[in-house]
Amino acid sequence: MSRRLLIALLVAVPMTAALAAPPDAARRAELETLLYQDCGSCHGMTLRGGLGPALPRSRMQAYDRDALAALILQGIPGTAMPGWAPLLSEDDARWLADHLQHDTPLDR
Fold first, then answer.
1. How far apart are CA 48 and CA 32, in angstroms?
2. End-to-end Cα, the chain, rounded Å
3. Under DSSP, is residue 56 helix (H, G, I), strand (E, B) or coil?
4. What residues does each domain of the chain span?
5. Contact 69/31 with Cβ under 8 angstroms?
6. What is the fold of 21-102?
7. pTM of the complete model
């Protein structure tokens, strides 16, 4: 692969991700329920920790949004963190990552 093509791909991928439309209001509500109920079953209903670690904004902001979305989709092999790709689209995972980085009740 040429260096020019590699640079073009690296530049194009984040732009494509940024252009995706956010989920509609009904889907956002479903995703919030999933976050606080399903993710909360391990990370605590208020995301303050449990079986899994706490998910404060300060910790979530240490990740790039797309890297955090990939972690949500793929999970963490060898741990209790499952991959959610069978249930979530990439746009859903990006919205959840953005929500975790900016809109969770922790760190307020």
1. 16
2. 46
3. coil
4. 21-102
5. no
6. Cytochrome Bc1 Complex; Chain D, domain 2 (1.10.760)
7. 0.77
